[in-house]
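User: Um, what's this?
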Amino acid sequence: MRHAALDKKGEDLVEIDVSNRTILADTFVVVTGRSKIQTRSIAESIKEAVAAAGHPVKRTEGYADGNWILLDVGNVVVHVFTPEQRSFYNLERLWQPAEQRQAQTS
């Protein structure tokens, strides 16, 4: 997934371990595309890479809009954002460990 996103010039890719905090997934992958066209291209590239590895993408959300595309790949959920949406939702801050969140607000 990482290479597929970066091949399409995805920016600021981070992986967040959420395995001990939710049953939704073990890992969130967050990446930014500079435009809606680029976010769609990144999402398509990831879908192709996942399919080539023999894993189905269980669900895709937000593709038509393109501001925030979510790909459910089972134990990994990929979030492809435009810069504005990534800044607004700030998943990295939301899902970081409580100790780090507390230190930032002090």
About this structure: The CA atoms of residues 57 and 73 lie 5 Å apart. The longest helix spans residues 36-52.
